[in-house]
Description:
Helix content is 66%, strand content 4%. By secondary structure, the protein is mostly helical. The longest helix is centred in the middle third of the chain and has 25 residues, at 78-102. The N and C termini lie close together (7 Å).
Amino acid sequence: MPTTKLSEPATPAAIAERIRDAILEHRLEPGAKLTEAQLCEVFAVKRGTVRQALSLLATEHLVDLEPNRGAFVASPSLQEVHEVFEMRRIIEGGVIERVCRDQGGQGAAHLKAIEKMIERERKAFEQRDFRSWIRLSGEFHTALATLTGNRVLCNCLAGLVARSTLISALYESLGRSPCSFDDHAEIVEAIRAGETARASDLMARHLESVELKMLDRPARGAADLREVFGA
């Protein structure tokens, strides 16, 4: 299997991005061992570069670094599921209120772009492009947050959405994303109509539904990193 070609130089950030994408697209399951030697071979870099990349992912709670055992894709507990979604409900409820309050001017154009994203999400599902569907379902929430103009909020939510997607990989099988594009469309419709209370309620119910759909079925299985990242 040919090694993955990255633009030169293969930086820790670039490698971390590739691993992050593989996790969020369900190509790497929770609990999968990230063997340093294989990653060095796949990305054609030295061990120190791989370790820096894994450290970056550990700060995002996407990778667990265990002494004397190595690096593993994180396996969130049910308690973490509840805590992550509690935080998301708090933050995204604030996002809805802010977006509804500030709508106007360029707001309509931005909402139109998000509506197009929802259509891509729907099309990916219909075409059974589940990896794109999963990615787009998370991007809906982060795209909505960008309308607040608050970078700290956006960075915080992006981390929570990434952890939610990891949780989805643990508790849901590929092709069964719990995040509904129909819900997304209804939320945007309420925002566009200026119905703050309805939009907030729809978002809260959407996130509660996503949390409840997470089934207690931990994923298992080793990963062939050459196959995951191969050309």
